[in-house]
Amino acid sequence: MLMTTAPSRSVSETLVTVTQLMRPQQANFRGNVHGGTLLALMDEVAYACATKYSGAYCVTVAADAIELVAPVRVGDLLTLAARVTLTGRSSMEIGIEVTAADPRKPGEERVTCRCFFTMVAVDDDGKPEAVPPVRVETPEEDRIHCEAKLRRDLRRRYQEELKAGVCEVGNRE
């Protein structure tokens, strides 16, 4: 059984932010940053958040509920904000919100992307390592935590139905 002695922290205490300038080599022919570039940056900030929280090396096991809300343009300052929204025995769901701003227009920040990464803490042998539970302290954190549990339950149900062969020919309604 996995056990940890690390102290729990509240959702808000797990916040990690990274700000980066978007450059021409990250863009497509229209001057918008590639979605794949955004995913790579989100994976990096998810890793930083999970590792900082758990104190262990972490691996990405899933990325879901990816919403590309608005384009990111060359020259924008991109801010990625990540926080732990739910913990399991060795896993953590990391919620990420990405905002962009034209540095010439202070105060005009726009949400460009939201997503959730599932990260797992592992030891030096690559085996899952226990993580502390995340604490919920405010009504907003309670909502975030509840939504994270719903996403986890939906992922589990989806995997169970796939294993059960729901989509196999002859099993469809």
How much is the average pLDDT? 92
Q: How large is the radius of gyration? A: 18 Å
Low-confidence stretches: none
Main sheet record: 5 strands, antiparallel
The portion of residues forming beta strands comes to 25-35%
What's the level 1 CATH class?
Alpha Beta
Structural class: alpha+beta
Characterize the overall form. globular
Q: Output the strand order for the largest sheet.
A: 2-4-5-6-3
Order of helices and strands: EEHEEEEEH
Describe the protein's architecture and organization.
- With 173 residues, the protein is an alpha+beta fold.
- The chain has one domain (9-135): Roll (Thiol Ester Dehydrase, Chain A).
- It is 26% helix and 33% strand.
- The chain has two helices and seven strands, in the order E-E-H-E-E-E-E-E-H.
- The chain starts with 8 loop residues before the first strand and ends in a 10-residue tail after the last helix.
Give keywords.
173 residues, alpha+beta, Thiol Ester Dehydrase, Chain A, five-stranded antiparallel sheet, two-stranded parallel ribbon, 26% helix, globular
Helix-strand layout with pairing:
Layout: E1 9-10, E2 16-21, H1 35-54, E3 57-68, E4 77-87, E5 91-101, E6 110-122, E7 134-135, H2 139-163
Parallel strand pairs: 1-7
Antiparallel strand pairs: 2-4, 3-6, 4-5, 5-6
